[in-house]
Design a protein that fits this description.
The complex is a heterotrimer of chains A (339), B (396) and C (203).
Chain A: H1 4-39, H2 56-66, H3 77-94, H4 112-120, H5 122-133, H6 137-168, H7 173-181, E1 184-186, E2 189-191, H8 201-214, H9 226-229, H10 239-264, H11 275-303, H12 309-338
Antiparallel strand pairs in A: 1-2
Helix pairs in contact in A: 1-10, 1-11, 2-10, 3-4, 3-5, 3-10, 5-6, 6-8, 6-12, 8-10, 8-12, 10-11
Chain B: H1 3-19, E1 25-29, E2 41-47, E3 50-57, H2 65-69, H3 74-81, H4 89-104, H5 110-138, H6 143-163, E4 172-173, E5 176-177, H7 188-191, H8 198-221, H9 224-230, H10 238-243, H11 249-252, H12 284-308, E6 327-335, E7 338-346, E8 354-358, H13 360-365, H14 368-372, H15 377-387, H16 391-395
Chain C: H1 18-30, E1 33-37, E2 40-45, H2 50-59, E3 65-74, E4 93-101, E5 108-115, E6 121-123, H3 132-143, E7 146-148, H4 174-178, H5 182-189
Parallel strand pairs in C: 2-5, 6-7
Antiparallel strand pairs in C: 1-2, 3-4, 4-5
The chains are: A mainly alpha (339), B mainly alpha (396), C alpha/beta (203).
């Protein structure tokens, strides 16, 4: 029965999730500016907003939006215009299944993990569209690199998730968190630990490497590769569309970190906190875990140079995928034989 | 991979390429591009990510210095020549001034020669630090830039303290150096010498420079990803480097330990102790490594020079209007980028009849089409950056 | 390479000039005429022997470092800059000059071939030194000298369709035609004071 209340519910949820996503993306942008500045002995944003330059992301967004919205003459106008929406929509769609607390989740799908993997890959479609439709060789190369990266890194990403699913025995994200909260007994001692500490460390590493690659962040930022392809698929974009890509990129970073936090770090759950308290503090716990992972990704960016496209493929096919396969086997073995 | 397998791979590759004939794409890189260091344009034929040929198009910055030299008096020329390679302005002034001095038979005083030496080395440090900071940036590492440039600022401050300019000192005069800035008429004697406390400040700054090379070592030199991007990339064997006239760190990184500072002594390099750094590989990593080590050697030279610098006048007697006797001379010096020389033909007037400027980067860049054949697009950036050219030095 | 000059050796005796000795011997071996002044060795060769001399200098004399190549315009018709000292005695010609040196010491020489103005053609040395290509293109741009055998003698500095050769003495410096360089005026007005020390010699 679809009633008026259903639609009201949906609209409220969408607006809340959108606000959360954009808000967190803005915070991530600010964090990147500040964290990298301090790692580089700079102050970073200082004036915008009065204190610590907190309004810098807003100022940036405003500046971008003021620019003229250019579509290159030779571009495939429809595809060119549509591309940023696909990126943002795909990123936004991942937030649907992420549980922020036992009750605060837009939709707890039974195939939550499957849905996540499917939807998060759509961003690359948007990137490929942007690269192809821009009528620019740099953009085209950037888009193709992004596509190649997706194909190479979707596999280890999925395999790492498969290992988690095997251990949890469910594909629902709430179910995975609950599986981590469930106590396990080792030598008469009953404790509950996140998957990271109960045998998923390899999966975690693979997942993080693959997600950094999917996010096209240093050391895997070849689709943008400023010094090679000027700005890759973003070269021809300006104004609101550029802002959308920009926000989408950081929102994707948040969503990937949220997925990693949920799958490996226990999501909204931490040990020694009662179920009722989690109802209220769950979101904050998850956000703290997300922040930790985001910081980690920023840290990598401030430290490493970028790899080459062939080295990236090499790493995926020759190292990550075999290791991930082996990891799934080992996890499955323990699941079936030992426990 | 064994040979048989490789041959098989090649055959299958050929079979595929015959079936799917693809056309190379022309990729225009530059003149405005983040990694061309100015206005260099490369017309590359790329097959996917692989470059089949690349043709540099230069001349966007051609300012006609050789022609301008024919209408400038000798005294006006120093302002011009330190703009050729603006990252190491002073080092390109020296050979020109020495050429004029030799033609006129003027011997600059000892102290001036040592000051020239110190400044040359400071500019070498500054130039190499621009390289060690910006090279990782081209490979995508943003942080080294800030850490290295922060310490380079101290060197620039020293240069500014001595000469009054940070990039274009215009500090050489025929017969010595310009009386250092500062002081009024009443303090004539003080103002004639280098600023008070400058040598001590230099000593302190050199400590910081050494510290910065250590930081580079920990952040960049040993970095696995940096090595993956540079080791074995853009290999220039020694004989090719010589054939194309590569010089300076680029030549030394190809296993040819040739440093003009060990051979040409118009600055008192014979009285300081330093090593010629060279590396056998000829790849991008070696070119980076050689420059990083050369910063250390330059620091060594500067510290020795501070101890050895004699008291005395800054400038020998020279006529105010320079009339250079008829003659031809070639003077070269070790610029931070390599051999920098001037072939000066004087016909006895106030202006050169012809001045050939042997600029380093022009020769260093000319190997680009050879070394980039068959490279990948990301390697293009790595190789181009590692050659450390300045467009002003290429185009003159 | 035992006879290459040794710069570390102090020139105590006036008679012995290592550069002169080395230059003369080198010219004798390669079949040219040596002029040595200010430690700068110039070896004049015939243009028919140009490539051969360069090759022999590389292979037999160890001068394997290609430093640069350029042209010189010896001309009476001077639009900008100074004329030669004795214009009447000048034999108008182009000179192609190539510097080769060694990467082991200070050995090095400038090889010069004279070309008549109406027939400025010379064989390219790109077959000997690959790096000469750009230098020959530059000389072609600036002087209009033809290098037969250069694989790509297109303009390197000049824009397409540029008329003239800027480094010719007869080529006007257009910027200065419009507005004379103020510095030249200064110098011409300044009285010659050769005796007065110009700098701080008294410290």
């Amino acid at each position: 029965m679809i009633t008026g209340w259903f639609w009201a519910d949906v609209i409220v949820k969408v607006i809340l999730a959108l606000a959360a996503m954009i808000g967190m993306a803005l915070v991530a942008i600010y964090a990147e500016l500040k964290v990298m500045s301090h790692m580089q002995h700079r102050i970073g944003p200082y004036y915008a907003g009065g204190r610590w330059g907190w309004a810098q992301p807003f100022a940036d967004a405003l500046k971008f939006i003021q620019k003229e919205d250019l579509v290159p003459e030779g571009a495939d106008s429809t595809v060119f215009r549509a591309a940023p929406y696909i990126v943002v929509a795909a990123t936004f769609a991942t937030f649907v299944v992420i549980p922020f607390s036992p009750s605060l989740v837009a939709r707890d799908l039974d195939l939550g993990v499957f849905y996540l993997l499917a939807v998060s890959s759509l961003t690359t479609l948007g990137v490929l569209m942007a690269g192809w439709s821009s009528a620019n060789k740099y953009s085209l190369m950037g888009g193709l690199r992004a596509a190649g990266q997706l194909i190479a890194y979707e596999l280890p990403l999925a395999l790492a998730v498969v290992a988690v699913v095997v251990q949890a025995g469910t594909m629902s994200l709430v179910g995975i968190v609950e599986a981590q909260a469930a106590p396990i007994t080792i030598g008469g001692l009953s404790i509950s630990l996140p998957f990271l500490l109960t045998g998923q460390i390899v999966s975690f590493v693979i997942f993080m490497v693959a997600s950094v690659a999917e996010l096209s962040r240093i050391p895997f930022d070849m689709p943008i590769a400023e010094s090679e392809l000027t700005m890759g698929y973003l070269t021809e974009y300006s104004s609101l569309r550029f802002t959308m890509f920009f926000l989408g990129e950081y929102a994707a970073m948040i969503s990937m970190s949220a997925i990693a936090a949920t799958l490996f770090l226990g999501g909204y759950w931490i040990p020694f906190v009662s179920e009722t308290a989690l109802l209220y503090f769950g979101p904050f716990i998850l956000i703290a875990k997300i922040s930790l992972l985001v910081f980690f990704i920023l840290w990598i960016r401030a430290t490493w140079p970028r790899l080459r496209e062939d080295q990236l493929q090499d790493m995926a096919w020759r190292w990550l995928i075999p290791i991930a396969l082996l990891n799934v086997l080992v996890i499955a073995f323990f699941k079936v034989v030992v426990f | 991979m064994n040979e048989e397998y490789r041959a098989l791979m090649h055959r299958s590759e050929v079979a595929v390429s015959v079936e799917l004939q693809t056309q190379d794409m022309t990729l225009n890189i530059g003149p405005q591009h983040p990694s061309t260091h100015g206005v260099l344009r490369l017309v590359a034929q790329v097959d996917g990510e692989r470059i089949s040929s690349v043709e540099p198009v230069i001349g966007y910055m051609h300012r006609g210095y050789e022609k301008l030299a024919e209408v400038r008096t000798y005294a006006q020329m120093t302002a011009l020549v330190n703009r050729i390679d603006w990252v190491s302005g002073f080092a390109s002034e020296v050979p020109f001034i020495v050429a004029v001095e030799k033609l006129m038979g003027i011997e600059p005083p000892e102290r001036a020669q040592w000051i020239r030496l110190i400044l040359t080395e400071l500019f070498r440090i500054s130039s190499h630090m621009v390289f060690t900071s910006s090279y990782p940036l081209e490979l995508g590492a943003t942080t080294p830039l800030f850490h290295v440039l922060r310490e380079r600022e101290r060197v620039l401050e020293l240069i500014e303290g001595m000469t009054g300019g940070r990039f274009h000192p215009n500090f050489n005069r025929v017969g010595g150096i310009k009386p250092a800035a500062g002081g009024g008429k009443t303090q004539k004697k003080v103002s004639m010498d280098i600023p008070e406390g400058w040598l001590e400040a230099t000593r302190a700054a050199m400590e910081r420079v050494l510290l910065s090379t250590e930081q580079s070592d920990t952040l960049v030199t040993g970095n696995e990803l940096f090595k993956a991007r540079t080791v074995g990339v853009g290999v220039i064997p020694g004989n090719k480097a010589i054939e194309y006239g590569l010089s300076g760190p680029n030549l030394r990184a190809s296993g040819v330990p040739f440093d003009l500072r060990k051979h040409e002594f118009h600055l008192p390099y014979d009285q300081v102790d330093f090593n010629v750094i060279s590396a056998p590989g000829g790849d991008c990593y070696d070119r980076y490594w050689v420059r990083l080590q050369e910063i250390r050697e330059s620091v060594k030279i500067v510290l020795q020079a501070i101890d050895k610098i004699p008291e005395g006048p800054l400038r020998a007697k020279a006529p105010r209007v320079l009339k250079v006797p008829k003659g031809q001379i070639y003077v070269r010096g070790e610029n931070p980028k390599g051999e920098f020389g001037y072939y000066l033909i004087s016909e006895g007037g106030q202006k050169p009849y012809r001045l050939k400027i042997r600029s380093t980067s022009f020769s260093n860049l000319s190997i680009l089409p050879w070394v980039l054949k068959g490279a990948l697009v990301p390697d293009l950036v790595a190789v181009m950056g590692s050659l450390d050219f300045v467009l002003g030095d290429v185009d003159r | 390479m035992n006879d290459q000059p040794d710069a570390t050796e102090p020139l105590e005796e006036e008679v012995r000039d290592p550069y002169l000795e080395y230059g003369t011997a080198l010219a004798e071996r390669l079949g040219g005429r040596a002029v040595v002044e200010h430690d700068t060795i110039r070896i004049y060769v015939d243009r028919s022997n140009w490539v051969e001399t360069i090759r022999r200098a590389r292979d037999e004399e160890g001068l394997d470092f290609f430093s640069w190549l350029t042209g010189i315009d010896w001309s009476k018709d001077v639009e900008v800059g100074d004329t030669v000292a004795e214009p009447d005695e000048l034999e108008e010609r182009f000179e192609v000059m190539c510097r080769l040196s060694s990467v082991e010491g200070v050995a090095g020489a400038h090889f010069i071939a004279a070309l008549p103005k109406d027939d400025a053609v010379i064989d390219s040395i790109t077959g000997v030194f690959g790096g000469a290509e750009w230098h020959e293109r530059e000389a072609h741009d600036m002087f209009g000298i033809e290098f037969t055998g250069n694989p790509n003698l297109s303009p390197i500095y000049l824009p397409e369709g540029f008329i003239g050769h800027p480094l010719l003495k007869s080529y006007p410096l257009l910027a200065r035609e419009v507005k004379p360089w103020p510095g030249t005026v200064d110098v011409e007005d300044m009285p010659p004071e050769p005796e007065e020390p110009a700098g701080g010699g008294e410290a």
